[in-house]
Every structure is written in structure tokens, then in C-alpha cells.
UniProtKB/TrEMBL annotation:
<protein>
    <submittedName>
        <fullName>Uncharacterized protein</fullName>
    </submittedName>
</protein>
């Protein structure tokens, strides 16, 4: 499932449970990561214009890491939603022992 479809599904599940605030927080966090990536791109462009050699392999690692961070944020929200959906279920093993609310 692609990221946009996952995001839509998460929003539906959270809105149904009256926890849309969690979705918005995740959305804002992902935007902050995207903003960081854009700031880095601009900085690297300025560096390149000033004659600094840009190492492509390092750039690739940087952006791969940011994508992994974004994936982890989405995955954590999915686990949080599972815990919310199973609230009160005695046979369910929580992902977050300290709770989700």
C-alpha cells in the first residue's frame, strides 16, 4: 500500500475514534521532515554553486534516512491505532505498555 493510501486509511480510522488530533500531529511531523529535506536541498545547492563538491552517495544516505524516519513515524501511528482499537480487550497484547492516551 502506498504512503498516500496508508495516510487516508489512518485518517479514517482515527476520525472514527475521535482521535483526529493524532493524525494531524503525525501529518505536521511528516511535513517538518519534508521541510528539513528541502532546507538541505537548498543548502547543498548553495554549496555546489560556491564550488563545494557534493558527494552523491552521502546525499543518497541522507534522503534514505529521512524516508526511513517518515516510515517509522507512520508505523508508530499504526501501532498506536491498534492499541486504541483494542482498548479494554484483555486478550490483546499492547504495543505500548505505558498506554496511548
Amino acid at each position: 500500500m502506498d504512503t498516500n493510501a496508508r495516510m487516508e486509511e489512518l485518517e479514517k480510522r482515527l476520525t472514527t475514534q475521535h482521535h483526529r488530533d493524532l493524525f494531524l500531529q503525525m501529518k505536521h511531523t511528516l511535513k517538518a521532515v519534508d521541510d528539513l529535506a528541502e532546507q538541505h536541498r537548498v543548502y547543498q545547492a548553495v554549496q555546489a554553486l560556491s564550488g563545494t563538491r557534493i558527494v552523491g552517495a552521502e546525499e543518497s544516505v541522507y534522503f534514505d534516512t529521512l524516508n526511513q524516519v517518515k516510515e517509522q513515524i507512520i508505523h508508530t501511528l499504526e501501532l498506536t491505532i491498534e492499541d486504541l482499537e483494542h482498548k479494554g480487550d484483555k486478550n490483546y497484547t499492547k504495543h505500548f505498555k505505558d498506554g496511548v492516551e
